[in-house]
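Standup notes, structure subgroup. Blocker cleared on the uracil input:
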Amino acid sequence: MDSWQALKSDCADCRRCSLCGTRHNLVFGVGREDAELMFIGEGPGEQEDLKGEPFVGPAGKLLDDMLRMIDLDRSMVYIANIVKCRPPGNRDPLGVEQEACAEWLGRQIALCSPKLIVCLGRIAAKAIIDPEFRITRDHGVWYDVGGRRCMATYHPSALLRDAGKRPEAFMDLRSLRKEIRAVCDSI
Ligand code: URA
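Run returned:
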């Protein structure tokens, strides 16, 4: 049977793709390991790579604000990324990198067993919900993925670049709050 300890130890010195050659730290994930709600981002940025923790840079500050708007904080949720190591220059993670990393996130999801998953941005939504996912068209819609309720909203970095998307993201958060009330016990 799998355990968080086994997973962390298996993942710790991962060399499955070339991102291991440029990383400062592998960014495993953070938060409540039995959370009913998991957020999945794309991959570490510069600050995350330096600290070894997801969403600690400017996008992370906005994610904290977004959580606060619906009475959540980091300690109540689990936060992970599609790829655990920073793609140089913050480019999109390549398909081969995502595939090489998929086992780690798969095991995180299985161990955490969240009722709800929120994908942050296009890359996570395509990997988790549907390869044909289009964030502008499909954000805020709830999907059943392997028995879990999943939706995607705009990535906080996209909201920093384009504040015009924030009202739509706020509607997604309201929908998330409603879903939490409907299916979660501990949050
Ligand atoms: N963007 C992400 O997708 N993940 C992080 O951890 C930080 C920024």
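Discussed briefly. The chain has eight helices and six strands.
Next: hand off to the docking folks.
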